[in-house]
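Request: Show me your protein:
***
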Amino acid sequence: MATLAFEELFDPHFMESLHRLRLVAGRVPIGGRFAEQRSKAMGHGIEFRDFRPYSPGDDLRAVDWNIYRRLGRVFLRLFEEMEDLPVYLMPDLSASAYVSEAGPSNSELTPRAHAGLRCAMALAAIALGQHDSVGVFPFSNDVRVAIRPQSGAGRLVTFAKILSTLGPDDDSDSRQTDIAQSLQKFGAMNLRAGLLVMISDFFDPAGIEAVCKALGRTRHQLLLVQLVRKGDRTPDPVQMSGDLRLVDAETGDAQNLSITKELLERYTESYDAFESGLTDFATRRKCGLLQLDVDDPVVDQLATLFEGGRYQV
């Protein structure tokens, strides 16, 4: 479960593909993109919003003199301010995210955490390039501050270097997944309201209902990136057959099972209920939900967020 070298995690091809993703995201119009978000504050922006009567001490440069000449009354023209959107990236670094799963012909598949970190890097590249502030808060049963919120396209390489050093904690208690506790501690940081991107498989011992309840309590806008594999719902019948001893990757607890058709059907039903719970929450909350196949190119899948030239936050 060791971390990858920088060149392995963020190879030249991946870093070059970020430029293409920024171009795709750059086609999103003002008001629906990560950057240049409309502020509730009224000031000296470029987009007219409203009038209000003049009060002593107001800036005379905002007075609408045409109205004064016509009506003899002093009104101010109010313009909508544009501000950056804080983007908070929360990649899942629990021990299970670093399990090297078996693939076809017993080949070793890349751990989900690597795709999650590439996803975080790609979204950071978009936000930094559009003058948003970006912070990285990896989590397992707790949340860490890997990168405090900061802005500037020139920080891209620094982000990549820090992300490449992230990995699961050695402490056994910190290797387990606890999304509710992680979100509670993240919320206690009292960061400015922004876009919270949680990157995880969302498998949690507490169950999907507890996960959605915790997500529902956050005051931030949400984008959920679900790390999936094609065999999540339907396990390989060759690998999952007969008598097996299954070991929990986070707790080390073991369970002896006899894999039968009925057991696999019950598993599929449970997985479908998990998927429905997460999807229904995203629909109710009106937040983004992207299923990211960890075995396919990350950037191509993220580009679908901006199809039609828009990603509304």
